[in-house]
# Entry
Amino acid sequence: MTEPEEVSLDHFLGGGTRRGRTHLLRIALLAAAVVALVLLVVRFLGGTDSPFYTALVEQGSITPLLSERGTVHGSGEVALAAALDGTVTAEGVPAGGKVEKGQILATIDAEPLRSTLAADRALVAAAEADLEAARGARDEATSKLARFEDVWRRSGHRVPAINELEAARTAAERAAREVAAAEARVSAARNSLKADSETLAAAVVRAPFAGYVVERNIRTGQRVRVGMKLFTLAASDETLEIEIPLARAGSAGLDAGTVAQVRIDAMPDDVQQATLARVLADSADAPGSRRAVFTLEKPTEAIRPGMAATVEVALPERKNVLLVPDAALTFEPGSTGGAHVDGNSTGRNQPRIYLVSGDGEPRRVYVSAGAGDGKRTEVFANDLKPGAEVIVGWRNPPEKH
# Structure
């Protein structure tokens, strides 16, 4: 009877209640810790409540990578232009293909020229008929004048009358002039027929020599005009070059002898080396532009003129510069309409980035973009500091209305 009495006494004194409350408190604390841990994990995995992905503006070094597209060129290049207006009804070897001398590259439908040729032939026939008639009239006038002069001599200049003799002489001279004019018309008509025939023959575009198609500027069904460039052919693949534009910032560090890596589209795993041969300026197609010409050092036999390629050049290292991810230069808030602007707006084409302002809204900052390495780009802007939070993308894109 003693133990039950002790339990009953503890219960009476409140000892059991205190232990129960302690147990509940421990459970509550454990639950709170679990909730806090869950919230921490969710915050870690889900990020902040901001709708943007961001990165920090860095200050550091970068080795710029110039990457431009180009086409492999060969030696002895010749451009083939359209000799007549018409529609391309067939096309031959594509760019990069090998051709033989006389091989058909394209055919131009020139139906209007065929009608012109028919008219030319009719003019030649008419001119020849006129010439034949003029010669007959000349022969008759010449014979009549010869008879008159013979009688004039034998009659002692008594007959025919002097005016008749002069008229015969004038008629003979006029007939001779008409023959000369008819001969000129025949010559002109024949020359026109010959020129139009040669032009029609040029409707079939043929390779003037054995070589490679560097460029093909036409397609089936395309309308072409006289003088339009159709193809560029290279006679040889002994020396292969690649020409690329130098429009991007940071290309000023290129000097003769700079080594580049070349990746041919048709064989992307086979990296070639090329050396900068020269820099060209003031292209007729783009005044003020600059172009770099690289010579392939040891091209494989599979590389031919006309193949598309990418040229990659590591430029001199840039130190202690401000850097942002490339994605920051392509991000646009879109229809949010809440972007603040810093700096002077100099046009929609100027590069820009967006920083996160104090109220969480994107703040637009116009920058000057320098060189990049394919991941980061050097930027210049007033009041832009390292550590600034720059937007690189949407975490929660706004709904489109």
The CA atoms of residues 347 and 366 lie 10 Å apart. Residues 1-14, 39-44 have pLDDT under 50 and may be disordered.
